[in-house]
Design goal:
This protein is α/β, with parallel strands linked by helices. The protein contains eleven helices and 13 strands. The strands form three sheets. A six-stranded mixed beta sheet has the order 2-1-3-12-4-13, with helices on both faces. It is globular and about 60 Å long.
């Protein structure tokens, strides 16, 4: 009877331990579950979803798990999701990255290649008939910026260019549009009294823009230096193997006809490997412009 009691006790202990172990998250199992791909609202919501859905489906096949595509209608909404670490893979701007690297444990793995180029710059664009010939001429004028105060290229870098030209934020009126293309279009049509717009140096070349405005009537007032393009990062806790699989899948896209079709839908010509130090120039610009140190 005593021995039976001991046996039953051992069984109870064993079952309790087994239940405890099974209740703990299993890293291998977790990594076989679906993962979330977040893409920031560089373009309108429907355009982003349409453009990146083929990429998410491709990654699903390559990684052997569902890759769920998520975007937002605004930069603020996107940043909130990023702060909550809702994305396993994330495509965002350089400011998002340098902040997410320091505060949210995201690691860069790649960056955009557009029209065969893996760099991008900021610019200030005006209408040719505006009479504005220099940065100084923008004093007291309204300048549009796309995406909000966390937009690296169209606001932070553009503000840096204005400072380099002798203007500080208090010297002109600031107005934000939802994204860079909408800011450019609004400036072209003189909406809200806008006399200039801060955008990436590639915006004037976008096919969608050329359909909506006569880009021949626009001119670059100033263009900055070329730095690393828009980054792609992953959560630090993803396994080294999964990170390598993600990067490998992205890099080989431009090597096949089907892959190039997927890239074209996303307005890309490919992906390039990226490392954290590639974004040190953006850290310097952010420190100079916003006073925020992400080194």
């Amino acid at each position: 009877m005593k021995s039976m009691t001991i046996v039953m006790l051992y069984i109870a202990v064993f079952l309790g331990v087994a239940a405890f172990v099974s209740s703990k998250p299993n890293k291998v199992t977790a990594e076989r579950e679906s993962i979330t791909l977040g893409v920031f609202p560089r373009f309108a919501h429907d355009i982003t979803m349409e453009g990146f859905t083929p990429l998410s489906k491709y990654l699903s096949k390559q990684l052997g798990r569902r890759v769920r595509l998520v975007t937002t209608h605004s930069f603020a909404e996107f940043w909130k999701k990023l702060q909550n670490r809702e994305f396993d893979i994330v495509h965002f701007n350089q400011y998002h990255y340098i902040r997410a690297k320091k505060k949210l444990n995201y690691e860069v793995v790649a960056m955009n290649e557009e029209r065969g180029r893996s760099t991008i710059s900021s610019s200030i664009v005006v209408r040719k008939d505006s009479g504005i010939k220099s940065i100084a001429d923008l004093k007291g004028k309204t300048i549009l910026f796309g995406g909000g105060p966390k937009a690296m290229i169209s606001y932070i870098y553009a503000t840096y260019l204005l400072k380099q030209g002798g203007l500080n934020p208090g010297d002109y009126q600031i107005r934000f549009e939802t994204n860079p293309p909408s800011a450019l279009i609004a400036t072209f049509y003189h909406l809200w009294g806008a006399q200039a717009v801060g955008v990436g140096d590639v915006v004037l070349e976008l096919p969608g823009i050329k359909k909506l405005v006569d880009t021949k009537q626009l001119a670059y007032l100033t263009v900055g230096k070329q730095y690393a393009h828009l980054p792609w990062a992953v959560k630090k806790e993803l396994s080294p193997l999964l990170k390598k699989q993600i990067l490998a899948a992205m890099l080989k896209l431009k090597n096949s006809e089907q892959g190039r079709k997927i890239l074209k839908k996303a307005r890309l010509s490919g992906f390039a490997p990226a490392k954290d130090s590639d974004f040190n120039p953006h850290r310097k610009i952010t420190l100079n412009t916003l006073g925020e140190n992400f080194f």
